Amino acid sequence: MKLYRFFAIAIVWIAFSHATQAQQLNTDMDSTVTTPGQVTIKGVPVKYTATTGKLPVWDEKGKIIAGLFFTYYERTGIADRSKRPLVISFNGGPGSASVWMHIAYTGPKILAIDDEGYPVQPYGIKDNPNSILDVADIVYVNPVNTGYSRAIDEMDDKTKAKNFFGVKQDIEYLATWINTFVTRYDRWTSPKFLIGESYGTPRVSGLSLELQNSHWMYLNGVILVSPTDLGIERGTVPEAANFLPYYTAAAWFHKKLPSDLQSKDLVDVLPEVEKYTIDELTPAISKGGFLPEAERKEVAARIARYTGLSEKVVLEHNLRIPKTFFWKELLRDEGFNIGRLDSRYLGIDKEATGSRPDYAAELTSWLHSFTPAMNYYAKNHLKYETDLKYNMFGPVRPWDRSNNTTGYDLRQAMAQNPYLNVLVQAGYYDGGTDYFNSKYNLWQMDPSGKLRDRMDWKGYRSGHMMYLRKEDLKTANDDLREFISKSLPAEGVPAQYRRTN
């Protein structure tokens, strides 16, 4: 009986300890570890500290409701942080970890890949000689359920959705978290920039206004990397027509254009297609079934010329080529599909027939290289110890997409803050958030044109993550440096609009 009681107590203790351990995976919402580091950027050694861990999200009653995993790189030896820019970095999804730009774009370490962005073994990381850490400190933020970020264990799924999973919810709690971070790390006087990629672009666009209106925090710049539509209404006609320049770029890369176009450089071809899209294709599609037959055939011939598809296929789709079909069709006769977010990537489907690829060739390649590198980097370099799974993509659905006014919110933030500038970075081969629609955003965001001098756009010869290509990694980071520099006002220059007369 005593032996039985001993084993019974032991089993209860083991079960309790395991339950406690499982719970403790998620309850340490306010702790960090700091490690020193050094990287050579542009030939200059840059020493820094990397602080990583969790910082709480508080509710209105002062209760911790979540812990966000973050990594904060701060260059050492800076005497005056009031002049040192702070860049706050988000990725997208929604539901994506803040990993892509962290270890492949702006951070001091990048994953080991080849010069075009494909996985190589052994997996790992290397120094980033193009990091912007020489000119700005950077914090990478993981929203709830991404990376190691989690809500408190007691919170059910319905409450999580109410607090975190939606356009407005996301912006509101992240603005509160940024306030906590800026206060705790004493960065209120620093120039501040937000950078977001993909769904991170409506996130930072909305944050620009939320931070001003609810936290009285004013920014110097917002950087939109591969932006979404930002809640700016397209309508069915522009939505169909605006894809054409991207189709041309992808077809040019795969050498599917007519010889006279193929012999030109990409950036010399695209302006012609952009002009045709706005001036001729959009009005033609607007006429729908009432477009005269002769005009219909003429338009189909032009679309075929600019896409590498046959006139027959274009006519069968009523001049409106779905992107999923294009990814399947362009190289169908060669037995490949092309990637959605980066159409340089090739995939292999089970069958040549069909109207869409079996899988996203580019995303599987990226997960192949990023996942082991990030798990290795967090444990072995940042010294962050946890048994939690690092969520490259976490459960955040259903996502409430109602009331998405983020593009207009960014315009309003710019109007209210004369210091605030915007930079857009887009890859020509991105079919998910295509480059021409990122230009369209800027045109529609500010119809008055009064803010156009504070908006800039840059294009790159790669896809959604343009920085995975070695050449674009350098160029894109240099563009960030230039943008940060020109967004810092000269000493004594007030944030003020002036009449010209």
What is the topology?
Layout: H1 2-27, E1 31-41, E2 44-58, E3 64-75, E4 86-90, E5 109-111, E6 125-127, E7 137-141, E8 150-151, H2 157-164, H3 167-184, E9 192-197, H4 200-215, E10 221-225, H5 236-241, H6 244-253, H7 259-262, H8 266-286, H9 293-307, H10 311-316, H11 323-329, E11 337-338, E12 346-347, H12 361-380, H13 406-416, E13 421-427, H14 435-445, E14 455-460, H15 470-486
Parallel strand pairs: 4-7, 4-9, 9-10, 10-13, 13-14
Antiparallel strand pairs: 1-2, 2-3, 3-7, 3-8, 5-6, 11-12
Helix pairs in contact: 3-4, 4-13, 6-8
InterPro entries: AB_hydrolase_fold, Peptidase_S10
Keywords: Carboxypeptidase, Hydrolase, Protease, Signal
GO molecular function: serine-type carboxypeptidase activity
Quick recap:
With about 500 residues, the chain is α/β, with parallel strands linked by helices.
3D structure, described in words:
The chain folds into two domains: 324 residues, 3-Layer(aba) Sandwich (Rossmann fold), CATH 3.40.50; 126 residues, no CATH class. 39% of the residues lie in helices and 17% in strands. The strands form three sheets. Strands 1, 2, 3, 4, 7, 8, 9, 10, 13 and 14 form a ten-stranded mixed beta sheet that branches. Strands 5-6 form a two-stranded antiparallel sheet. Strand 11 and strand 12 form a beta hairpin. It is globular and about 70 Å long.
